[in-house]
Amino acid sequence: MKDKTLRVIILGATSAIAACTARLYAKEGASILLVGRDEVRLSQMAVDLKARGAENATVAFSDLAAATDAPQQFAGFVQQLGGVDHVLLAYGILGDQGAAERDLVAAEEILRVNFNSAAAWSLVAANVLEAQGRGSLVVIGSVAGDRGRRANFIYGAAKAGLEALVEGIAHRFANKGPRAVLIKPGPTVTPMTDGMNRKGALWAKPEQIAEIAHARAYRGAAIAYAPGFWRYIMLIIRNLPAAIFNRMEI
C-alpha cells in the first residue's frame, strides 16, 4: 500500500529518468534522499520536490560510479533518511563505442560505470532490503542488453550483465517480501542521447519511463520493458537469424 511516509533513496538522482520519478514520489508525499555528485543541482531538486508535495527531500553527495565503501555509504544514506522502502538506481553513461573498441581504458569506463558500480550498489541495497524483509529495488537497464549489436555492444554487455544480476536478486527475494525490478527502456530523449537523431515513434520521453519505474516499484514482474512495445521489438531482434541480423545497421 502506498504510504505518505514512504522513504525513497534515489541513486543517480540528477538523471532525467530519476528526476521525473522523484516528482512522482513527491506527489505521493514521500520522504526522498537524492544521491549524486552535482551538489547545486541536487539542492535545487530537493527544494522543487518539497514544493511538489514531498514530506522531506534531502541530499547526499557521492561519486556513485566509484562505488567506494558502498556498504558504509549506503548505511549512511539509510540512517540519514531514517529507513528505506524503495531504492531507485538510475545512473549510467553511454560512452563512445568506436573509442572503446580502440581504447581499453574507455571500454573499462563504460563497464565500470554501467555494470561494476551499479552491481555493487544493487547488491548492497538488496542486503538491506532482505534483512528488513520488505522494500523495492528498481534498476534502470536498457534494451541494449538483449542482443549484442555493433552500434553499442560494450554498453550493451554491461546492461546484459546488470539484467542477469537484478533478475537473480529478484529470484533470491522470491517469497521473502522485498522485490527487485529491472526497467529496460528503449531509446529515450535524455542528455545521454544528445546529438542523436531523436525523431520517430520509437523514442520515449523520460516521463514515460518514470511512470513505469514508479509503478513497478509496487507490483509486476521482475523485468519491465519501457515502453512495453519494446518487449515485442526485442523478441524479434533476439530471434533474427544471423544471416539477416548481420546485414542490419542497428
Automatic annotation (TrEMBL):
Gene Ontology molecular function terms on file: oxidoreductase activity
Name of this protein: SDR family NAD(P)-dependent oxidoreductase
Signal peptide as annotated in the record: none
Pfam families named among the record's database cross-references: adh_short
Cross-referenced PANTHER family: 5-KETO-D-GLUCONATE 5-REDUCTASE, DECAPRENYLPHOSPHORYL-2-KETO-BETA-D-ERYTHRO-PENTOSE REDUCTASE
InterPro entries per UniProt: NAD(P)-bd_dom_sf, Sc_DH/Rdtase_CS, SDR_fam
Keywords recorded for this protein, A-Z: Oxidoreductase
